[in-house]
C-alpha cells in the first residue's frame, strides 16, 4: 500500500493507493502544511483503519513548487520512512500534474508558480496510456512560453491558474479544453499512482540523501 503526500503548492493532500485509489483527503489552499500535514495523514489512515505496518512505501511530490511546501513534504516523508522502516519514492511534481490530466487532452504543459512572472514548466505527450515527458523541468518567464511548443496544449497547474489571463492570450488558438465528462485527479492521487508504478519497477530513492527539486541554482555557502 502506498501513502502519498503532496505539499508542493497551496493545497495539502494525502492519498492511499493499493492497485487503485483507496482514499484521499485534500485541503485546498492550506498554506499551513507544517501545521496540517501530520494531522491529515493521521486522518486518512484512521478513516481507512490502516496501520503503519500496512504501508509498503511513502511517496512525496518532490518539486518544483513552493520552496517551503516542498521542504515540509520531504521532511515528513523522510521522517515516516525512517520511523516505519519504509522505502521512499519521490515523484516529480510536474510529472504528477500531467498524470492528473486525462489522456484525451493529447498534449499538456504543466506549470507551477516561481518568482514574479516566472513559472516552472514541462511538456508531456499522451502515448497510449502514458504521459511521456517531452522536456526537462524548466523555469521561464511566462512571456517566453508560447514559442517553446507549437502544438495544441492543455495547460494545467497552479502556475497556469496564477497567470491564466496572460497564458490564455499567449495560447489563444492552441489551448485545449476538456469536455464536461472528463475530470482531473488531485495531485496527491496522481503521485500515489505514479509511485506505485515506480515501486513495482524497483525505482526507489535514497531516504537520507533525497532533496526537493527546487529547479533553481542556489549559491554555495563557501562561495
Automatic annotation (TrEMBL):
Q: Which InterPro entries match?
A: ATPase_NBD, Gcp-like_dom, T6A_TsaB
Claim: Transferase is one of the keywords in the record:
yes
Q: Which GO terms describe its molecular function?
A: transferase activity
Q: Which SUPFAM superfamilies match?
A: Actin-like ATPase domain
User: Which terms in the GO cellular component ontology are assigned?
Assistant: cytosol
Tell me the ranges covered by the Gcp-like domain, including all copies: 32-146
**Full protein name:** tRNA (Adenosine(37)-N6)-threonylcarbamoyltransferase complex dimerization subunit type 1 TsaB
- Say which species the protein is native to: candidate division LCP-89 bacterium B3_LCP
* Gene this chain is encoded by: tsaB
Amino acid at each position: 500500500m502506498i501513502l502519498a503526500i503532496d505539499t508542493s503548492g497551496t493545497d495539502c493532500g494525502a492519498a492511499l493507493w493499493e492497485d487503485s485509489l483507496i482514499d484521499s483527503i485534500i485541503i485546498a489552499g492550506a498554506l499551513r502544511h507544517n501545521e496540517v500535514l501530520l494531522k491529515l495523514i493521521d486522518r486518512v489512515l484512521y478513516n481507512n483503519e490502516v496501520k503503519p505496518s500496512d504501508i509498503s512505501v511513502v511517496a512525496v511530490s518532490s518539486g518544483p513548487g513552493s520552496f517551503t511546501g516542498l521542504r515540509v513534504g520531504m521532511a515528513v516523508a523522510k521522517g515516516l520512512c525512517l520511523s516505519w522502516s519504509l522505502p521512499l519514492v519521490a515523484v516529480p511534481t510536474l510529472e504528477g500534474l500531467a498524470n492528473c490530466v486525462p489522456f484525451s487532452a493529447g498534449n499538456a504543459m504543466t506549470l507551477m508558480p516561481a518568482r514574479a512572472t516566472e513559472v516552472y514548466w514541462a511538456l508531456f505527450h499522451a502515448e497510449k496510456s502514458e504521459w511521456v515527458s517531452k522536456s526537462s523541468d524548466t523555469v521561464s518567464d511566462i512571456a517566453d512560453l508560447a514559442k517553446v511548443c507549437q502544438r495544441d496544449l492543455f495547460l494545467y497547474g497552479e502556475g497556469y491558474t496564477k497567470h491564466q489571463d496572460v497564458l490564455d492570450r499567449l495560447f489563444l488558438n492552441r489551448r485545449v479544453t476538456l469536455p464536461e465528462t472528463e475530470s482531473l485527479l488531485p495531485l496527491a492521487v496522481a503521485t500515489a499512482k505514479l509511485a506505485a508504478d515506480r515501486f513495482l519497477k524497483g525505482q526507489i530513492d535514497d531516504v537520507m540523501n533525497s532533496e526537493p527539486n527546487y529547479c533553481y541554482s542556489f549559491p554555495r555557502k563557501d562561495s
